[in-house]
Design a protein that fits this description.
Blueprint (H helix, E strand, L loop, with lengths): L7 H4 L13 H12 L6 E7 L5 E7 L3 E2 L2 E2 L1
Antiparallel strand pairs: 1-2, 3-4
Length: 71
């Protein structure tokens, strides 16, 4: 909540796309598809959009797990 301004109640059950700046969403989808196929790095940089309209630069690390095992 401190970072984005969204409360847990607002975000639980919501699509994660609400957090991303719309212009980067296609890149986000491409990154996660590649991560699932083990085709790209596990670190991704993007921009989130806060509730009040501020842009927040983020770096995400993704680990794919299957049955509790990191692949």
């Amino acid at each position: 909540e401190q970072l984005t301004g969204f409360t847990a109640e607002e975000m639980i059950g919501s699509n994660v796309s609400l957090l991303y700046v719309p212009k980067v969403w296609a890149r986000v989808v491409h990154f996660f598809k590649g991560a699932l196929a083990h085709e790209n790095q596990a670190v991704f940089q993007a921009e989130w959009l806060s509730k009040d309209g501020r842009i927040i630069f983020i770096s995400q690390t993704v680990s794919i797990t299957i049955n509790g095992l990191v692949t």
